[in-house]
Protein backbone atom coordinates (compact mmCIF):
# COMPACT_ATOMS: atom_id res chain seq x y z
CA UNK A 1 0.00 0.00 0.00
CA UNK A 2 2.87 2.38 0.80
CA UNK A 3 4.39 1.71 -2.60
CA UNK A 4 1.10 2.68 -4.29
CA UNK A 5 0.94 5.92 -2.28
CA UNK A 6 4.52 6.83 -3.18
CA UNK A 7 3.87 6.03 -6.84
CA UNK A 8 0.70 8.16 -6.75
CA UNK A 9 2.67 11.09 -5.31
CA UNK A 10 5.36 10.75 -7.98
CA UNK A 11 2.65 10.53 -10.66
CA UNK A 12 0.96 13.61 -9.21
CA UNK A 13 4.27 15.47 -9.45
CA UNK A 14 4.62 14.36 -13.07
CA UNK A 15 1.08 15.44 -13.93
CA UNK A 16 1.62 18.78 -12.16
CA UNK A 17 4.78 19.38 -14.19
CA UNK A 18 2.93 18.31 -17.34
CA UNK A 19 0.25 20.90 -16.65
CA UNK A 20 2.96 23.55 -16.31
CA UNK A 21 5.00 22.74 -19.44
CA UNK A 22 2.64 20.97 -21.88
CA UNK A 23 -0.03 23.09 -23.55
CA UNK A 24 -3.43 21.40 -23.36
CA UNK A 25 -2.94 19.70 -19.99
CA UNK A 26 -4.70 21.33 -17.06
CA UNK A 27 -6.25 20.63 -13.67
CA UNK A 28 -8.63 22.70 -11.57
CA UNK A 29 -7.41 21.97 -8.04
CA UNK A 30 -4.88 20.03 -6.04
CA UNK A 31 -7.59 17.51 -5.16
CA UNK A 32 -8.30 16.83 -8.81
CA UNK A 33 -4.57 16.43 -9.42
CA UNK A 34 -4.25 13.84 -6.64
CA UNK A 35 -7.41 12.09 -7.86
CA UNK A 36 -5.97 12.01 -11.38
CA UNK A 37 -2.77 10.43 -10.06
CA UNK A 38 -4.70 7.73 -8.19
CA UNK A 39 -7.02 7.02 -11.12
CA UNK A 40 -4.05 6.94 -13.52
CA UNK A 41 -2.38 4.40 -11.24
CA UNK A 42 -5.49 2.22 -11.31
CA UNK A 43 -5.89 2.60 -15.09
CA UNK A 44 -2.22 1.69 -15.57
CA UNK A 45 -2.67 -1.37 -13.37
CA UNK A 46 -5.85 -2.65 -15.06
CA UNK A 47 -6.29 -1.29 -18.59
CA UNK A 48 -2.71 -0.62 -19.75
CA UNK A 49 -1.51 -4.27 -19.70
CA UNK A 50 -4.45 -5.24 -21.90
CA UNK A 51 -3.71 -2.40 -24.31
CA UNK A 52 -0.01 -3.29 -24.44
CA UNK A 53 -0.84 -6.88 -25.40
CA UNK A 54 -3.44 -5.83 -27.99
CA UNK A 55 -1.07 -3.34 -29.63
CA UNK A 56 2.05 -5.49 -29.43
CA UNK A 57 2.42 -5.96 -33.23
CA UNK A 58 2.23 -2.20 -33.81
CA UNK A 59 4.61 -1.58 -30.92
CA UNK A 60 7.14 -3.99 -32.44
CA UNK A 61 6.86 -2.42 -35.89
CA UNK A 62 7.46 1.07 -34.43
CA UNK A 63 10.32 -0.16 -32.23
CA UNK A 64 8.38 0.65 -29.06
CA UNK A 65 7.39 4.21 -29.94
CA UNK A 66 3.70 3.26 -30.05
CA UNK A 67 3.87 2.82 -26.27
CA UNK A 68 3.84 6.63 -26.10
CA UNK A 69 0.43 6.55 -27.76
CA UNK A 70 -0.74 3.85 -25.33
CA UNK A 71 0.49 5.93 -22.37
CA UNK A 72 -1.19 9.03 -23.82
CA UNK A 73 -4.42 7.05 -24.17
CA UNK A 74 -4.23 6.04 -20.51
CA UNK A 75 -3.79 9.68 -19.51
CA UNK A 76 -6.68 10.63 -21.80
CA UNK A 77 -8.85 7.92 -20.27
CA UNK A 78 -8.02 9.29 -16.83
CA UNK A 79 -9.02 12.78 -17.96
CA UNK A 80 -12.25 11.37 -19.37
CA UNK A 81 -13.11 9.84 -15.98
CA UNK A 82 -12.37 13.03 -14.01
CA UNK A 83 -13.96 16.42 -14.48
CA UNK A 84 -11.16 18.46 -12.89
CA UNK A 85 -8.37 17.10 -15.09
CA UNK A 86 -8.23 17.87 -18.82
CA UNK A 87 -6.04 16.71 -21.68
CA UNK A 88 -6.85 18.38 -25.00
CA UNK A 89 -5.73 16.17 -27.85
CA UNK A 90 -3.32 13.39 -28.65
CA UNK A 91 -0.20 15.57 -28.70
CA UNK A 92 -0.99 16.97 -25.26
CA UNK A 93 -1.43 13.38 -24.04
CA UNK A 94 1.88 12.31 -25.57
CA UNK A 95 3.62 15.31 -24.00
CA UNK A 96 2.07 14.49 -20.63
CA UNK A 97 3.12 10.84 -21.01
CA UNK A 98 6.71 11.88 -21.74
CA UNK A 99 6.91 14.35 -18.85
CA UNK A 100 5.24 11.95 -16.38
CA UNK A 101 7.51 9.11 -17.52
CA UNK A 102 10.65 11.21 -17.11
CA UNK A 103 9.58 12.35 -13.63
CA UNK A 104 8.85 8.75 -12.65
CA UNK A 105 12.22 7.61 -14.05
CA UNK A 106 14.08 10.35 -12.14
CA UNK A 107 12.25 9.53 -8.91
CA UNK A 108 13.02 5.83 -9.39
CA UNK A 109 16.70 6.52 -9.89
CA UNK A 110 16.90 8.90 -6.92
CA UNK A 111 14.94 6.83 -4.43
CA UNK A 112 15.61 3.37 -5.81
CA UNK A 113 13.10 0.81 -6.90
CA UNK A 114 13.20 -1.12 -3.65
CA UNK A 115 12.61 -4.85 -3.47
CA UNK A 116 9.77 -6.29 -5.46
CA UNK A 117 7.93 -9.21 -4.17
TrEMBL record:
UniProt keyword list: Membrane, Transmembrane, Transmembrane helix
InterPro entries, A to Z: Phage_holin_4_2
Segments passing through the bilayer: 29-47, 59-83, 89-111
Protein name, per record: Membrane protein
Lineage: Bacteria, Pseudomonadati, Pseudomonadota, Alphaproteobacteria, Caulobacterales
